[in-house]
Amino acid sequence: MLLLLLLLGFATPSFGTTYHFEAESALRFNTIISNDTSGYSGTGYVTRFDTEADSLLFQFDADAGLYELIIGYATTQTRKGYELTVNGARSSGMFSYSGPEFMEHRAGKFILNQGTNKITIRKGWGHYHIDYINLIPTTLDSLKKPTTQLTDSQISLASVSLYNFLIANYHTCILSGQQDLHDIKYIKSVTGLEPAVGAFDIIDYSPSRVAYQSDTTGVIDSWIEWAQTGHGIVTVCWHWNAPTDLINKKGKEWFRGFYTIATTFDLEAALADTTSDRYQLLLRDIDAIAVQLKRLEKADIPVLWRPLHEAAGGWFWWGAKGPEPFKKLWVILYDRLVNFHQVHNLIWVFTSDDQHEWYPGDDYVDIIAMDIYTAPSSAMTGEWDLIQRQYNGKKLVALSESGTLPDPDKCRTYGIWWSWFAVWNGSFIREIDKNYLKKVFQDKDIITLNELPDWRKY
Ligand code: CA
Predict the structure, then answer these.
(1) Is 194 a catalytic residue?
(2) Which of 142, 235, 301, 355 minimizes the number of CB atoms within 10 Å of its CB?
(3) DSSP label at 339?
């Protein structure tokens, strides 16, 4: 009820003041005031976020309500991550590269208390300047329905039904998901419930792993069995081991071959010559994966297909040479699977971040997803608002990977309706408090496997 009252309150805000606080007037912990870089507001800016303890604290009185937090900043080298705490709730975010200019960053929406409020900015990646913050009264965005058309004109009926089901439920509930079968079983053992979405990785079918005898015994079969037993929804990512040029030394072993640091494979060079051995090896790998995806298609299982993820981070070889080679590879992959191999059970999921120039385009992407690893208390409003702005609400948005469970109370409060979430495997899910895990899976707006309707009828 409290939440409802708050939400009603936000629809017609009685508050109306924008607050502006200069960083140089805030409380500093091991950070310094500088005015070396010009273009700041007030009398300077705060910088030297060098250690985890270095921070900046804004403490102020405000009228209660929902506000958008704007941070005036500069980051003169590249984009830089930061950490944020608003009245005890931690989150994190990314400052885009600003060059020599000071810029404004939209950090998300936050509820301020009547009376005292505290906002702390902590190092994260460091190497940025903070000029000021603004808090602007705001409301929740109106909900938009995404496009209903999938990119593949010959897409399977089951895939269309799945997509229609996702659209029908978007903004009303969130499908629970989990990476890997053994962690799906773990969730069942703790909560008695299974996630509606099984998230899997086709990694070990990469030919350069098969060459090292990666164990693929029964892997696809186990996904098919899981999907057919409980009518669960399948999403598959691909940690694509580089086709060749694996370094295979300590710390850069063959099984880390999807990491940029573990291979010398140069995507840009490979794409530059379509007759080159390395270009042909890219196609060989796609062809090998097509065989496996066909097995899922033959079983009439739609796949929320999420290849080439987190490209803009650069830590995977497919993102190491910038957006142009990446987008080229995405289109080659799309064309090879859909048009050449005629794989028609794939709903194409692009994992996006703050750098929109990596987007392969509406003709090749059906759903947008984000991989977010942040503090458990984060509502992820900054990330959600960014993605709604970037895609103007025209694409369904999912939380394809996370290190934490989204909090359903915060999702309702802030209107953050991920189509589905999937927590990453191992310690990420297992270190989550078991009572909290139960609470989330039992929540009325979090859909578990037993609550899934027959989505094939949509
Ligand atoms: Ca300032």
Answers:
(1) no
(2) 142
(3) I
According to DSSP H, which parts of 64-174 are helical? Answer: 157-169
Spatial CA neighbour of 92 closest among 413, 383, 410, 367: 383
Choosing from 24, 83, 310, 383, the catalytic residue is 310
Strands 346-351 and 27-29 turn out to be: unpaired
Across 62-79, average pLDDT? 95
Residue 52 is among the residues annotated as catalytic for this protein? no
Ligand 1: distance of its center to the CA of 23 in Å? 5
d(CA 21, ligand 1 centre) in Å: 8
- 383 alpha carbon – ligand 1 mean position (Å): 25
CA separation for the pair 352, 133 (Å, rounded) = 26
Q: Tens digits of per-residue pLDDT, 347-405?
A: 999 999 888 999 999 999 999 999 999 999 999 999 999 999 999 999 999 999 999 99
Q: For residue 319, count other CB atoms closer than 10 A to its CB.
A: 22
Q: Nearest to residue 265, comparing CAs of 280, 238, 243?
A: 243
Q: Could you tell me which of 156, 201, 98, 218 has the C-alpha nearest to residue 346?
A: 156
Ligand 1 geometric centre to CA of 129 (Å) = 9
How far is residue 197's CA from residue 160's CA, in Å, rounded to a whole number?
17
Tens of pLDDT, residue by residue over 212-250, are 999 999 999 999 999 999 999 999 999 999 999 999 999
Q: Is the dihedral of CA 15, 18, 24, 30 positive or negative?
A: positive
Compute the distance from residue 132 Cα to the ligand 1 centre, in Å. 5
Ion ligand 1 contact residues with beta carbon within 5 A? 22, 40-42, 45, 131-132
Q: Mind listing the domains of the chain with CATH numbers?
A: 2-137 (2.60.120.260), 157-457 (3.20.20.80)
Radius of gyration of the chain (CA): 23
Provide the β-strand partners of residue 396.
367
Helix (H), strand (E) at residue 367 = strand 367-372
Look at residue 142 in the predicted model and tell me its pLDDT. 83
Q: Which residue has the tokens 């931690």?
A: 90
- Dig out the tokens for 135 from the structure: 């808090």
The stretch 166-170 carries a mean pLDDT of 96
Sign of the dihedral through C-alpha 153, 154, 159, 162? positive
